[in-house]
Design brief:
The complex is a heterodimer of chains A (157) and B (323). Chain A is of the alpha/beta class and 157 residues long. Chain A is built from 4 helices and 8 strands. In chain A, β4 (75-78), α3 and β5 (99-100) form a beta-alpha-beta unit. In chain B, α6 runs antiparallel to α7. The chains are: A alpha/beta (157), B alpha/beta (323). Bound molecules: zinc ion (ZN).
Chain lengths: 157, 323
Amino acid sequence: MAGLVWNFAKGNQQTIIVKLTGSIDEDSRLERLAADLKKTAAPLRFDLSGVKRINSCGVREWVNFMRSIPKTTDVVLENCAPIVVAQINMISNFAGHAKVASVKAPFVCEACGYEEEATINVVPGSRPQFQSRACPKCGKPRLIFDDLEESYFAFMS
Amino acid sequence: MGVVTSAVSPEILFFWGDNKDRRALFKVLAATGASVRYAEDVAALDQVANCRLVVLDYDSARALSTDVMRRLAVMPLPPPVLVVTSSRDKGDLIELFSHTVMTNLVAKNQDLLASELIVTVRKIMHNHIFGLEKYLTWGVHTYEYSISGSDGRHQPMADLRAYLERLGANRRLIGLAEGVADELIQNAVYNAPADSAGKPKYASRSRTEPVVLLPNEEVRFSFASDGRFLAICVADRFGRLETETVRNYLRKCFLQGEDQIDSKQGGAGLGLYYIFQSLNHFIINVAPGVRTELIGLLDISGTFKDFVQQAKSLHLFLQRNAK
Ligand SMILES: [Zn+2]
């Protein structure tokens, strides 16, 4: 299995960007990431666009990991992949004290099955609504949001 | 000569609102060969001596359905109870899972899936509950695996993914299917095996600790599709899963309280919830002490949006006289 890998980058104002890629499961060893982050009090931004899978054991690892980050540290989740958005909606403590800044919204063409994702910034109190638009593959105006707005963005309410 | 329904023929009692579905449902239930009786009042429960199944309309006869389930809950050996609903509401599911007599929750989407009802009634009436083939069109090819430990899940999961990619299924639906396979197999490998005294052997182990199963503990994994539904099936040889456990875990997880995730050793207690949330139909067949078979059906014919718009079914079948 691919497992989970992470790398660090510097963001604005001493923020540390942590990009996670792969599966969050029982083998993710998130305690190692927690140990690395213990050395800093800088604001954290987790880029979760590369998370491919999360299983039930992985959720527990993740929730424990989020709990290990001091409440005084500013934490942001960004570019959350659809699988991450599903967890935020299903698991009460998944986001911990983090703010969800942006998510990947899934789109599908009802005519040809083409799929793509677009980054949506989360604006508190304003749930996005999507109209169908032209499919970049077949040209038909049938590219739709591939979920229900009220359930996909339920975490905002 | 016509078929005479004798007094000892199995009875289905159905409590239903006054709507157009009633006649359609009557036909479907009667098509199984069972004798079907429509009832308007809880008192009907006392008038039928050999009631083998109770069918309830949770949408338009909710108060009556609740009364019937409460009445059945105090009976010594209540018959299976099949509840039909179009609700996707979390609060409704939490309430339904709190009824200990409910064995079958059947989703009503645009219309009732006659095949699902017929299979369900047939399984209950004939006490022949196992097999994923009951849920797919005849003629499909089933892929089968024997899994002998926790590491054994990776190849079947990769094969399942490749298969669904070949079929052209939606990417997120493929992710759901893979997740269901993962949870089902992990559950069967870690939670099912017990020693001769019935004590779980591996359930308290950390899921990072690999398990190698003995030959008599091996898990069967299979999948197949008829183009509409993908069926994923995992079976163990222990038959230790209790329907009460299923209902309690689902209820607890839907409540999303502080105890949503188990902090004990072993699994996180979320597996059944994840599986249910990732499927259209979740079927649990148990022959106590002999075999547990969990089957997931996922409609792979459409988009993810089509999937989330549908209500879900849950079936708990217990084989009588299993040993
Ligand atoms: Zn297209």
